[in-house]
Every structure is written in C-alpha cells, then in structure tokens.
Design goal:
By secondary structure, the chain is mostly beta strands. The chain contains no helices and nine strands. The strands form three sheets. Strands 3-9-8-5-6 form a five-stranded mixed sheet, with no helix packed on it. The protein has a two-stranded antiparallel sheet with strand order 1-2.
C-alpha cells in the first residue's frame, strides 16, 4: 500500500511513500504506520492538497491537522492545511497510513 506525492512547485519532484512491510520493520518503527519515504511539508506555509484515486476510494486523513479528503477514481478533490510547528505526525488512511515530517524547509 502506498501514496504517490508530487511537489509541482519544486521542479516536479515526485515519489511514492510505501508502508514498511512487517518483515522489514526496524526497532522503534510502527507496524502499519511507518513508511519508506515520508512526506515533508514546510512550517508556516499554506499547503494545497489535491487528491485522486486509481483503484478504490481511499481517505487521506491527518487527525492532528483536522484534514481529511477522499481519493476517488476519476475525481480530483482539493483541501489545504497550514502547519504551525515542527514534528513528525501520522496520517491515517482507509487502506494505508503514512508518516509526515514537518520541517522549516521543504526537501
């Protein structure tokens, strides 16, 4: 299970964020929560999030930010968020999860 991310304002940077498989978990990593490539977002900027699906309906959900959007096949849904402080939080989804690292600079 994975999410694909694109940063169109960062020279078209794209990557996939895959859940770490149980057999590959290292000490301290959380089952069904840790990913190989976390999403990194800047602090203090309004972040526009566009979500779409390719197979089934998914829910991209970050409870601590109060953000939830559905990824639906053939539809482009939009939401936004603004992060106020640095840290690592967990984003939940109907079928997968992801870690998000919040930093002062985008990568």
């Amino acid at each position: 299970m994975y999410w694909s991310y694109e940063y169109p304002d960062q020279a078209g940077l794209t990557f996939d964020s895959n859940l770490i498989q149980d057999k590959d978990l290292k000490p301290g990593q959380k089952r069904l929560l840790d990913v190989d490539n976390p999403l990194v977002v800047p602090v203090g900027a309004t972040i526009r999030v566009l979500v779409t699906g390719t197979d089934v309906i998914h829910s991209w959900f970050i409870p601590s930010f109060g953000v939830q959007e559905y990824a639906v096949i053939g539809r482009l849904n939009e939401t936004w968020m603004q992060v106020e402080r640095e840290g690592t939080i967990t984003a939940n989804a109907t079928r997968s999860a992801a870690s998000i690292t919040v930093s002062c600079r985008s990568r």
